[in-house]
Amino acid sequence: MKKTLRRALVILLAIALLLTVLLPAMSIFAHAAVTQGDIDKLKDQLGGISERKKEVQARLAAIRDDLAQAKEAVALVNEQIVLTEQQISATQDLIDATQAQIDATQAQIDESQALLDQYDADIAQKEAEIADLEEQEQEQLEEYYTQVRWMDEHGSISYLSILFQASSFSELLDYITIIRDLIDYNDRVVTQLRDTQARLADARDQLQAARDAQAEVQAQMEEQKAQLEAQQAEQEAQKAQLQSQMAQLERDRADAAALMEQIAAQESEIAQEAQEIANDEAALQKALKEAERKYAEQLAALEQQNNVNSGEWYWPLPGKTKLTSLFRGRYHPITGRWQSHTGTDIGSAPTGTKIYAAKAGVVSFAGWDNSYGWYVMISHGNGYTTLYAHQCQKPPVTTGQSVSKGQVIGYVGSTGSSTAPHLHFELRINGVRNDVLKLYPSTKFTYTSGGKTYTWYGNNYPDDL
């Protein structure tokens, strides 16, 4: 939306510029004649167009430099993107390797857990076996203690004395059998007790060994778990780094695309503006060429009509030849300062007196100036221009209008920088001010200064004036 509005604004500005430039040029052909002012205005407009053209070309060169730099920046970003993608690939390889390590560590933990479970079962079995052996030991101890108490109760008994108590051989054999059984019983009780105690000690050793092995496996598993947690943390960090790299990659790509799009749009807009200025310049050059052609035709016609080099000039105020200021230095009647007077003042005509064109020509200006007041300038060809100032009202002729010699072009007044009704009559040749009286060598003029009145013809001033 913003780009559309901006382009619409550029187009509207271009149209406004085109109208501003071309309407004055078109107005030339709307008039009956072309003036030097029109040509100068077209040249000024062409100068302005040329300056704008240079400025736009400079901007276009600058934006193209920016575009070249942007392309270099984009190329650098693309290189960075390639490097980032390589880093991302390497990071992914690390993640995969870490995952393989995690899987291996988890398998080790699973094996350790299975081994711990087996140790738990073995320990439980050993503990049950030890409990049975301890119970068996306790029974055998009680049996052993019973036998020992019986022997204590009956004192020291000699097996031989028992034999001597036999009254017959068969009783002797019975006693011998009893003694043998008693001895065997005692031996068996002691042997069983020792065997039980040995088995119990072995079972306890095995239980301790199992517990030691279980503790070692448990410590190993804890270490494996810590290693697993470290590997998982490293993997999370690698994943976070990967995600950050991916996000930065997307931002870099978006920034590069936006930069290229922005600069391309600016280049297009400035190039369009440069083309519009070139079109305006071509139109102005065409209008200037046509105006100069038409103006040359007008001047040729005026030169033929007026025969400037030999023809007579018409006095703008017929019968009014009394002068109040000459074409020379004087004290300004308003400021009181000594300065050059650029024309000749005719002061013998009252307000409203008709002013006539000195010769045929084209009105190059008709309007207002703070110094001249209402005034008219007429171009007569061959570089000759006359000026009629301080008129009492807006001139009856307009800029660009052709006038004939003796045609009314205004009325005497006192507008602008003036103290009394008079006509300021001025001559310019190729833009340089000259004494207008030299155009009237046969006209008699009078001028009063210092109480003395002077009389002469044309610009043949008296020596004492």
Percentage beta strand: 15-25%
The averaged pLDDT comes out at 80
Instruction: Please count the helical segments.
Output: 4
Largest sheet: 10 strands, mixed
Uncertain segments of ≥5 residues (pLDDT<50)? Answer: 8-32
Q: Which series of helices and strands comes N to C?
A: HHHHEEEEEEEEEEEEEE
Rg on CA atoms, Å: 66 Å
> How many runs of DSSP E, i.e. beta strands?
14
What structural class do helix, strand and pairing data support?
Answer: alpha+beta
Tally the structural domains.
2
Gross morphology is rod-shaped
Helix content: 55-70%
Alpha carbon gap, first and last residue: 79 Å
Structure overview:
By secondary structure, the protein is an alpha+beta fold. It folds into two domains: 1-306; 322-457, Glucose Permease (Domain IIA), CATH 2.70.70.10. It is 63% helix and 15% strand. It is built from four helices and 14 strands. The protein has helices spanning 2-30, 36-153, 159-164, 169-306; strands spanning 322-325, 329-331, 338-340, 344-346, 354-356, 361-369, 373-381, 384-391, 402-403, 408-411, 423-429, 432-434, 444-449, 452-457. Strands 1, 4, 6, 7, 8, 9, 11, 12, 13 and 14 form a ten-stranded mixed sheet that branches. Helix 1 runs antiparallel to helix 2 (36-153) and helix 2 packs antiparallel against helix 4 (169-306). The longest helix has 138 residues, at 169-306. The protein is rod-shaped.
Explain the layout of strands and helices.
Layout lengths: L1 H29 L5 H118 L5 H6 L4 H138 L15 E4 L3 E3 L6 E3 L3 E3 L7 E3 L4 E9 L3 E9 L2 E8 L10 E2 L4 E4 L11 E7 L2 E3 L9 E6 L2 E6 L8
Parallel strand pairs: 1-13
Antiparallel strand pairs: 1-4, 2-3, 4-11, 5-10, 6-7, 6-9, 7-8, 8-11, 11-12, 13-14
Helix pairs in contact: 1-2, 1-4, 2-4
